[in-house]
Design goal:
The chain has one helix at residues 53-61, and strands at residues 4-10, 18-20, 23-26, 29-30, 48-52, 75-78, 89-93, 97-104, 134-140, 142-144, 150-155. Helix 1 (53-61) links the parallel strand 5 and strand 6. The longest helix is centred in the middle third of the chain and has 9 residues, at 53-61. The protein has one helix and eleven strands, in the order E-E-E-E-E-H-E-E-E-E-E-E. It has one domain (4-155): M1 Pyruvate Kinase, Domain 3, CATH 2.40.33.20. By secondary structure, it is mostly beta strands.
């Protein structure tokens, strides 16, 4: 199966974010999504948080009680080589929506319950390169939904 969106996740603030059938991507993120701490999450340079289902499954194999949406990601993706999802890379969702990775996320204490022994550093880029979630800016907004194809584009 080709790379695609597995789950689109929203919340009224905090984690876990819960799946929805579709959402509108704006320059500030997903409509109807909120963050519990907007000073450190959200905004145009952190509009969407992305993570890999393959990485979530790997964490589960290690015994962490994590699941899609638990780590606050707006989009859970499948089939993208996660080690290539680095700042500057763009992703095309469907034929229109375009995102640009701006930075790796810093694990927040709110995701502690989803890690065995609260070990949130397990998804910190400096400690475990290639296992971090990423933040993106929105280059082209639009509608997204689970099953939508995802393509990794070259650096901007």
């Amino acid at each position: 199966m080709k790379a695609h969106i597995v789950q689109v996740n929203l919340s009224a603030g905090g984690v876990p974010k819960r799946p929805v059938m579709r959402a509108r991507v704006t320059s500030l993120g997903l409509e109807d999504d909120s963050q519990a701490h907007p000073k450190v999450h959200g905004g145009p340079e952190r509009a969407l948080c992305l993570y890999s289902l393959e990485r979530i499954l790997g964490l589960q194999e290690e015994g962490h009680p994590v699941f899609p949406g638990a780590l606050g990601e707006n989009l859970t993706l499948w089939g993208i080589p996660w080690e290539q999802v680095v700042p500057g890379v763009r992703l095309l969702l469907g034929r229109e929506v375009t995102l640009e990775v701006t930075r790796y996320t810093t694990p927040c204490k709110t995701i502690r319950p989803f890690f065995r022994d609260g070990y949130i550093r397990r998804v910190a880029q400096p400690s475990f390169p290639g296992w971090s979630r990423v933040y993106t800016r929105v280059i082209v907004p639009g509608e997204i939904y689970p099953g939508m194809p995802v393509a990794l584009l070259e650096h901007a």
